[in-house]
Amino acid sequence: MLDYNQPIDRARPEAPQQRPQAGFSALELVNLLWRRKIAIAAAALLGATLAVTVGKSLTPRYTATAQLYVDPRELQLVDRELTPRAQDVSGMSMVVESQARLITSNSVLLQVIQQAGLDKDSEFGGGDGKTLMSSLLGLIGLQLRAPSAAETKEVQLAALDALNRHITIRKTEKSFIVDVEVWSTDPAKAAMLANTLTNVYLADSRNSQALAARRATSDLSGRLKELRDRLRNAETALATYKAQNNFVGTQDALISDQQLSASNQRLSAARAATMDAQARLDQIEASRRTAADAGAIPEALQSPTIANLRAQYADARKKYAEQAGELGPRHPALRQTEKQVEDLKRTISEEIDRFAQSAKNDLTRARDYEASLNRALEAQKRQSVQLSQAAVRLRELEREADASRDVYQSFLKRSRETEEQESLNTSAARVVGEATVPQRRSFPPAMSLFAMIGFIFGAIAASSWFVASELLFAGPPMPAATQARRGRTPAPQTPRAPEPAHASEAALPQVSRATEVAQALPEQALPEPTLPELAAPPLQPAAVERPLIAKPLIARLQEADVIHTLGAILATGGGVDLTRLGWPTLRPGFPLTSLLNAWRDMRAVAARRIGGKAMPVIALVGGGETTGRSVTALNFVLAAARDGVRVLMIDADHQAHSLSNKVHRPGKSEPSRLGWLSNGSKAAREIKTVNGISVLPAAEGDAGKAAEAIRKAIAQARSAGGYDLVILDGPTTPLAAGGRKLLDEVDALVAVLPTSMDINDSLEEILSTLGRAERKLVGVVLDELTPAAQARQRGRQYA
């Protein structure tokens, strides 16, 4: 264990080897890789060699490809097929994808295994069936038992799993082409397996269609007998019912319906005949009642007997008229002729009476016929009503018989169609490209690619190793001069200007921060104190160019943020290392988010206050114990350098010279980039540290001359350039005249308040000393470090 508070007297050892900063710029990374180019190239060549060796050790694979045309629109050989075709494009695509999946189905692959004998192929998990033991036993005439069915099944399943991994099915978009890829260690075997797989798939597709048709035929035939019996029963029931209910007739109509229609027609005709007979009789009767000639009726005129009698009657009257003129009334000849006339007249009258009687007979007959037809019609009507009621059940039986007949006929026809489809191949799938023996392997790729990949990965691995080693074991950055000697050019850095941590506070007038500081600090550090209110003058009009007083930012430097190192143990001629001065410095690689962010905000506020001019000047002031202020200033500078800021640190404490005493003894003055930046004397020349920070020690002599020398050095640095920030350690309070003039050159002030003292009194002292310069106050650092770790005896060495 080391006691950091006990002084030791020993000779100055050489400074330990410096470690590069944990972080690189692009130029530093390029320089690092360039310095290690031989090792990186060797690692790249080694990686290429290893990659080629690995590639040579890999088992080559040869891939054979067969092309299938799978058309979902199968051949239309019959009107009705077993499965409907896909009509839309999406349906066709699904059919093609399903067929592509069927190629790698277990049923197809098992047939390929059997045909190609893959269960005996060692590449697919099988064997030739002869092990060393079986061969030895065969030499002495003994044979091992045959493998059981379970063992054979296990071998087939292993071959099935291996074959499934060897097959890749690819479907071309928007086409019916399916690529079947099979890889194997033997190119001829790969082509054979691809062709066998396509042939087995086509044969399995045909067999599946025939099997489906055969199964459909069997199912349909099994139903035919039942349907036939059902039809026979339905037709028998229909015929029996017709016979029982006298449903006799042709296909179009029943006999009863035909008879009813015929009877109706005959009745109509009989009624017409009755009316005709009645009319004839009425006419004859009317002729007889009138004085007119009774022979004038149509029947008498048409009768040949009446016509003959009328002719005789006319001749007799003619003869009578002739004799009456010649003979006397009593003449026998005349009387005989007269008697002949009377006889003829009576005969005609009798003949007409017979016509009237005949008409009466016809009328009676017609009326009787009509009555008989009417009675028959009524009977048929009653029978028709009865048949109509029975026809309801008849139609039901007919429908059942028709339905059974239709179903039976459709099943019979479909059974015959499917039976014929067993021998038809309606599939349109075919092989459009047989697999050929591949001439080049598909895996591994070319050795040149392996060499390229190994070369790249080797170079990347070596570069990553060197970068990681540089980051893990790196210390602070080397000065520009050292980098120049090693062939490295320091990259120019741009100071960061982040937004202040309290952006909302930066726009407000300065008010008291006592309550906020008290809440931010632990109770043991701040028992009761509060920061006094910073009196802010009233806001001026915009025309007056007077900056507003903003609230100062607050940062806390704690023991957890720093690490204690050995002091003044440096290597001779190695330069000054600010982290090896014996003061507590920031932990390397530790985030310190809150502290570093607060200091970045302070630098950003100072950069904004100079209005775009280069190289702001920040002075760290404090009262009481000055070493704590110098330690805080040193860590403030190290934090800025960690962010890549080029910093010039000037010791402005002309009384204590704490910083100058630390760096002036072990260090070695070196000229600046211009070669003449100094603090007024040769002994106070600029010192380049290994941390990339330039330190300008304090000049001996009068305080006024020292302040004037610092002002000139700041002016020289601004005109020459090369720095992004100037940090003043001091001046100490209370301020002298030279210190007040020096504050006029300062752009921002940071107050350092040790918590070991009353921070209220310290702040009051600083504000009263600054006067109008208090408007430049941008931040307050609460120094919570242990004073014993800071206060060292001058000229002594501590661990």
From TrEMBL:
UniProt-annotated stretches for the region Disordered: 1-20, 479-504
Leader peptide range in chain numbering: none
Transmembrane segments annotated in the record for this chain: 38-55, 449-468
SUPFAM superfamilies: P-loop containing nucleoside triphosphate hydrolases (SSF52540)
Coiled-coil region(s): 217-244, 306-354, 380-414
One GO location term (cellular component): plasma membrane
Listed Pfam families: Wzz
Cellular location(s): Cell membrane
Entry membrane topology: Multi-pass membrane protein
Gene Ontology molecular function terms on file: protein tyrosine kinase activity
Main location: membrane
Swiss-Prot/TrEMBL keywords: Cell membrane, Coiled coil, Membrane, Transmembrane, Transmembrane helix
PANTHER family found in the cross-reference section: FERRIC ENTEROBACTIN TRANSPORT PROTEIN FEPE, TYROSINE-PROTEIN KINASE
Official protein name in the record: Uncharacterized protein involved in exopolysaccharide biosynthesis
Phylogenetic placement of the source organism: Bacteria, Pseudomonadati, Pseudomonadota, Alphaproteobacteria, Hyphomicrobiales
